């Protein structure tokens, strides 16, 4: 997801890679893990259909028509066409055809949007190939996001074409459309932590209304936007780009996508980095509970830092606990009486919680959190509302990208779990214990897939990849969205000799984009020269 222009410089690097809090949870009726696979989704053993030399449906031999990139569409977040890189290299865009249903590769197709910046060298002895990025979400537009990171990855362009894409269901790749901008404004203002029976009924009605709108407007695509299909798209992309191996950089949800790809196509894996790692062993409920703990840890780190600055901290309280108590009191007041936000819009408790969560993805945005809470406490909710908008994909002109709609569609196509209100209520004590600030918010988020028209594919994804080369797995100790423990779980699940865990002792979501010199050197040595860091390497 992306930030509004006013916040982009400070927060884009973090917010572009998040696992969205409310939509992470997905999906089986009444909490039962049983249920059919996603209609039209072929099982893992059918992966070899995409490995044929001509690709599925003969699409592996298609030629991409690269052209100057247009301005991002509304679904991608809008804005201006990407500016050239410092050396004058221009971004190029193309469209790749892929089967809508890989079980029927000769049937209908969809167009997938791609972007690239050519390598600084085309010398076959120096150029390694394409380095494909996925920035997470799920729901983030790679076409809109990669140019924003152009200078961050510039060193890697010495030997790679930098490539990204809008995964199916996202942006210009058969983007899922659910509700209008006005309807989404109302949806995000809905009480996300219902207390009364009437509140709960309204919450459930909103979820079902949203699901029905997605089915009405994007029913053809919904069964085919899951991670398995996206992984098959990446292998088709590898063929079309002319690469023998897929060299890959996955961030946040992109690590899950990378793990699923490695499981399906272990022999096709090249050099792969997984950063800000999703724990593949956790189902939707345990993953959401882990996020509650992760965001609470990040908030604790923020309040400790604020308290340590004494009078320089704008928030009242002599210690971290008092500062956090003040934040909780503010949220309680907002539930009863919202404050003015931006234009005619108000800052509600739910939007304030979203804004606080958004600011915890990077230590660079802690000053915005401090200022936003201070201003909201004084009756001005504009900054926290702007932060919430950045996470929800709303631009300053009131238009939404489709990142949240795609996030829900992809999450619900993947996960089987579905929850009732009674089941959520029974789990809320555990969520509150994990986080007094975010527990209720994330606990009720378990109902994101309630009433979804497509059944989920799995309880947890299979990422075992015997036969794959070493894959670098990086965890950040202070990561709020994908807690550090997930990196160890992913490394173990990939298998012995495949997953190589590395640790960054720092704050924020994702290590490479923190600009830590140690992390960037280790990743650079691996991607550029094939030097795999020793397992257990720690960067500070």
Brief summary of the model shown:
The protein has 16 helices and twelve strands. The chain has helices spanning 5-15, 142-145, 181-189, 197-218, 227-241, 253-264, 284-308, 320-336, 349-359, 366-377, 382-392, 403-414, 421-434, 439-444, 485-494, 517-529; strands at 67-68, 92-99, 109-117, 129-134, 160-165, 246-251, 269-275, 339-340, 346-347, 471-478, 499-507, 537-539. The strands form two sheets. It has a ten-stranded mixed sheet, sandwiched between helices. It has a two-stranded antiparallel ribbon with strand order 8-9.
Explain this structure.
This protein has helices spanning 5-15, 142-145, 181-189, 197-218, 227-241, 253-264, 284-308, 320-336, 349-359, 366-377, 382-392, 403-414, 421-434, 439-444, 485-494, 517-529; strands at 67-68, 92-99, 109-117, 129-134, 160-165, 246-251, 269-275, 339-340, 346-347, 471-478, 499-507, 537-539. Residues 1-53 have low confidence and may be disordered. The relative contact order is 0.17. It has 540 residues and is of the alpha/beta class. The strands form 2 sheets. A 10-stranded mixed sheet has the order 1-2-3-5-4-6-7-10-11-12, sandwiched between helices. The protein is globular, with a radius of gyration of 22 Å. Strand 8 (339-340) and strand 9 (346-347) form a beta hairpin.
């Amino acid at each position: 997801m992306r930030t509004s222009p006013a916040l982009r410089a400070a927060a884009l690097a973090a917010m572009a890679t998040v696992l969205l809090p409310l939509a992470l949870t997905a999906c089986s009726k009444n909490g039962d893990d049983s249920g059919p696979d996603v209609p039209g989704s072929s099982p893992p053993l059918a992966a070899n259909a995409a490995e044929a030399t001509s690709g599925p449906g003969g699409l592996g031999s298609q030629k991409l028509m690269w052209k100057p990139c247009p301005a991002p569409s509304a679904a991608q977040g809008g804005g201006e066409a990407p500016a050239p890189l410092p050396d004058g290299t221009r971004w190029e865009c193309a469209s790749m055809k892929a089967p809508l249903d890989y079980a029927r590769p000769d049937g209908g197709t969809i167009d997938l949007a791609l972007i690239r910046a050519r390598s600084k060298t085309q010398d076959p002895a120096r150029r390694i190939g394409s380095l494909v990025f996925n920035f997470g979400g799920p729901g983030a537009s790679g076409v809109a996001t990669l140019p924003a990171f152009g200078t961050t990855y510039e060193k890697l362009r010495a030997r790679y074409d930098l490539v990204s894409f809008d995964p199916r269901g996202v942006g210009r790749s058969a983007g899922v459309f659910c509700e209008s901008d006005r309807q989404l404004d109302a949806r995000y203002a809905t009480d996300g932590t219902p207390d009364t029976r009437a509140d709960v009924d309204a919450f459930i009605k909103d979820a079902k209304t949203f699901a029905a709108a997605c089915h009405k407007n994007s029913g053809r695509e919904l069964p085919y936007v899951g991670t398995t299909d996206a992984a098959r798209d990446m292998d088709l992309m590898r063929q079309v780009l002319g690469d023998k191996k897929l060299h890959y950089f996955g961030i946040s949800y992109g690590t899950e996508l990378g793990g699923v790809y490695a499981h399906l196509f272990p022999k096709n894996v090249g050099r792969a980095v997984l950063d800000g790692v999703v724990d593949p062993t956790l189902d939707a409920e345990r993953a959401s509970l882990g996020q509650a703990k992760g965001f609470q840890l990040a908030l604790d780190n923020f309040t400790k830092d604020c308290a340590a600055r004494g009078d320089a901290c704008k928030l009242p309280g002599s210690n971290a606990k008092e500062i956090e108590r003040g934040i909780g009191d503010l949220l309680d007041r907002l539930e009863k009486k919202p404050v003015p936000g931006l234009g005619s819009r108000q800052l509600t408790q739910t939007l304030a919680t979203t804004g606080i969560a958004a600011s915890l993805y990077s230590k660079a945005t802690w000053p915005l959190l401090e200022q936003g809470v201070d201003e909201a406490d004084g009756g001005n909710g504009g900054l926290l509302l702007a932060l919430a908008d950045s996470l929800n994909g709303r631009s300053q002109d009131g238009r939404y990208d489709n990142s949240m709609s795609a996030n829900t569609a992809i999450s619900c196509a993947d996960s089987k779990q579905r929850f009732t209100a009674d089941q959520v209520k029974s789990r809320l004590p555990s969520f509150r214990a994990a986080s007094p600030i975010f527990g209720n918010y994330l606990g009720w988020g378990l109902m994101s897939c309630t009433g979804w028209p497509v059944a989920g594919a799995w309880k947890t994804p299979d990422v075992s990849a015997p036969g794959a080369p070493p894959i670098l797995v990086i965890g950040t100790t202070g990561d709020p969205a994908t807690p550090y423990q997930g990196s160890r779980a992913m490394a173990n699940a990939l298998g012995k000799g495949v997953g190589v865990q590395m640790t960054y002792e720092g704050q924020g979501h994702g290590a490479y984009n923190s600009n830590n010199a140690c992390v960037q050197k280790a990743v650079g040595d691996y991607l550029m020269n094939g030097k795999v860091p020793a397992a257990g390497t720690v960067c500070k």
